[in-house]
Design goal:
Number of helices: 11
Oligomer: single chain
Structural class: alpha+beta
Number of strands: 18
Order of helices and strands: HHHEEEEHHEEEEEHEEHEEEEHHEEEHH
CATH class of the largest domain: Alpha Beta
Shape: elongated
Helix content: 25-40%
Largest sheet: 9 strands, mixed
CATH architecture of the largest domain: 2-Layer Sandwich
Strand content: 15-25%
CATH topology of the largest domain: Heat Shock Protein 90
CATH superfamily of the largest domain: Histidine kinase-like ATPase, C-terminal domain
Radius of gyration: 25 Å
Distance between the termini: 61 Å
Length: 398
């Protein structure tokens, strides 16, 4: 501004397009790591682990892997190995790079067709690339096509060609990475926090086994192994009060996939007489702490179903006040997990699911299956309604 208050355009020619800096690829990731993994502290380090594990979970969802081994190595690095198909190694046009190298270096968002995943977690296909860019060193080892293959990277750039080694009858991928201490404020990973998240993933993906080992000096101990064939049923039991105080037993659980196979919904719930494990929602195995469309669909359907059933059974009659959503959730432990081909997350934190179709389909699934369960289990259903009506009455007195 000039002294008169009018803008001074005299130096406009000094501000040109050359002053605008556009960061691309690994440079953008390394300069702005928080945009991709949330922080450069411990939370960001954990996200690095989860992104590599997400690839292995995708292999499980595609029906090709049932075991993942995570190791915190003695030097503070992390190794994630799975028994899936192994990352593709064939050379691809037009750049003539091996598919694995493109997977570890490309920064284009969105599903990558070469992986063949119908449903995918992590950073929309960008996770492995981000981990590579933020690591001082990364080594990938692949067993597929009858051989063991290896390639090494430094700070996101390949320093060796993809090498075909000795013959191998195995299959799977192992990725070892050492987070860059020039980027991260801390290096140690919390074994307990990693174990908690890995256990959560086994609940959300029934039949998948994940082990965690710590090889750091002074911390080495027996590996922890998580494996839950009952999936969300086991998760709800785990989240509920201890000792258990169920209004009904067993845990109610159901799942459904839409006609075009672009959305898979899993729900498990149980009412308890005391305390509660609360409500937990997930989209593509990512915890949606702030809810979103799938959570809204569940809550809306639940309130309607409880009111409709109570009226049909004359536990409330015409003229009675509608049971509130708060009362229907008294003592409730519930988990809703959706897996979508094209998830839309709101905000950089990826904690709100924005897909409106998830709301509609979750409502449809809950109405069909929970109504059916209540009709088929009248004694338990009556106990649930009594429990909810008691909470509703107490709510009105307060």
């Amino acid at each position: 501004m000039t002294e008169s208050g009018n803008p001074d355009h005299g130096n406009a020619s000094e501000y040109t397009g050359s002053h605008i800096q556009v960061l691309e690829g690994r440079e953008a990731i390394r300069r702005r790591p928080g945009m991709y993994i949330g922080s450069v502290g411990e939370r960001g380090l954990h996200q690095m682990v989860y992104e590599v594990v997400s690839y292995a979970v995708d292999e499980h969802l595609a029906g090709h892997a049932d075991a993942i081994d995570v190791t915190i190595t003695a030097d503070g690095g992390v190794r994630v190995a799975d028994n899936g198909r192994g990352l593709p190694v064939e050379v691809q046009e037009p750049d003539g790079k091996p598919a694995v190298e493109r997977e570890l270096t490309e920064t284009s968002f969105g599903p990558k067709n070469r992986t063949g995943y119908r449903l995918s977690g992590g950073l929309s296909g960008l996770g492995l690339c981000v981990v590579n860019a933020l690591s001082t060193r990364l080594t990938v080892e692949i067993h597929r096509d009858g051989h063991r293959w290896t390639q090494e990277y430094e700070k996101g750039l390949p320093i060796t060609a993809l090498t075909r080694n000795e013959e191998s009858s195995g299959h799977g991928t192992a990725i070892m990475f050492l987070p860059d201490d020039d980027i991260f404020e801390t290096t140690p990973d919390s074994f307990a926090m990693l174990s908690q998240r890995l256990r959560e993933l086994t609940f959300l993906n029934g039949g998948l086994a994940i082990s965690l080992t710590d090889e750091r000096p002074g911390r080495a101990g027996r590996p922890v192994r998580h494996h839950h064939t009952d999936g969300l049923r086991a998760y709800v039991a785990h989240l509920g009060p201890h000792p258990p105080s169920p209004v009904h037993s067993p845990v109610i659980a159901f799942e459904s996939e839409n006609e075009d196979a672009t959305m898979f919904v899993q729900v498990a719930l149980q009412w308890n007489t005391r305390s509660t494990g609360g409500f937990h929602s997930f989209a593509n195995s990512t915890r949606t702490h702030e809810g979103g469309a799938h959570e809204e669909g569940f809550r809306a359907a639940l309130t309607d179903i409880i009111n409709d059933y109570a009226r049909r059974q004359r536990q409330i009659v015409a003229g009675d006040e509608e049971i509130t959503a708060e009362a229907t959730q008294e003592g409730l432990t519930a988990v809703v997990s959706v897996k979508l081909a094209h998830p839309v997350f709101e905000g950089s934190t990826r904690t709100v699911l924005g897909n409106p179709e998830a709301n509609a389909y979750v409502q449809e699934v809950v109405r069909e299956h929970l109504n059916g369960w209540l009709d088929q289990n009248p004694n338990d259903a009556a106990a649930i309604i009594r429990h909810i009506l008691k909470a509703f009455t107490e709510q009105g007195k307060s």
